[in-house]
Automatic annotation (TrEMBL):
Chain ranges of the HTH tetR-type domain: 4-62
Keywords carried by this UniProt record: DNA-binding, Transcription, Transcription regulation
Extent of the signal sequence: none
Top-level taxon of the source organism: Bacteria
Name of this chain's protein: TetR family transcriptional regulator
InterPro entries referenced in this protein's UniProt entry, alphabetically: Homeodomain-like_sf, HTH-type_TetR-like_transc_reg, HTH_TetR, Tet_transcr_reg_TetR-rel_C_sf
Ribosomal protein among keywords: no
Organism in which the protein naturally occurs: Actinomycetospora cinnamomea
Length: 182
């Protein structure tokens, strides 16, 4: 029990330390967690292993958020909206991870594709019903959405954006584009 609790505490502390200080250290993480450095190193060993664990947790939370957003229910745009809102709600915790350029890790990109893959059927459903353009490959629409999500989560550092406005901005740009309304 203590092992799992300490691991969760250390991951929480790592996210917090990264948010507070872009030049964070393992010592910072241990201090935020109020655990010893020895405990931190027993769990993760290196900064890279800690970052990998944090990335894995971010992806697990995103997968849970997408599954919990009921992607098979309702029309496609509503389903995408629920999924985006659910993922963005976890974004603040993992914002610093994205700022650390998790996208540069090829395994992170592959895992992110797997996590978001259930939304391909939602996009296809939207194409069948005319809510989403049929001339765009569903994979491209999904890539655009994950890119907008990443940019949106990064932007939430700004005082102008909250979680709900980021979700709205992502969906508006994804579905309506940036051209003038017709």
């Amino acid at each position: 029990m203590d092992v799992e609790r300490n691991r969760a505490r250390l991951l929480e502390a790592a996210a917090e330390a990264m948010a507070q200080n872009p030049g964070w250290s393992m010592t910072d993480v241990a201090q935020v967690a109020r655990l010893t450095r020895a405990t931190l190193y027993r769990h993760f060993g290196t900064r890279e292993k800690l970052l990998a664990a944090l990335r894995a947790e971010a992806l697990n939370r995103a997968a849970e958020a997408i599954a919990g957003s009921r992607p098979d229910e309702g029309d496609a745009v509503d389903a995408l909206r629920r999924a985006v809102e659910a993922v963005v709600s976890h974004g603040a915790r993992f914002r610093s991870l994205l700022v650390e350029d998790a996208d540069q890790d090829p395994s992170f990109g592959k895992e992110r594709e797997r996590v978001f893959a259930p939304l391909l059927s939602v996009i296809r459903r939207g194409q069948e019903t005319g809510q989403i353009r049929r001339d765009l490959p569903p994979e491209w629409v999904l890539t655009a959405m994950t890119s907008l999500l990443t940019a949106g989560v990064r932007a939430t550092r700004s005082p102008w954006y909250g979680d709900s406005s980021v979700a709205d901005l992502v969906l508006t740009v994804l579905i309506e584009g940036v051209g003038p309304r017709r």
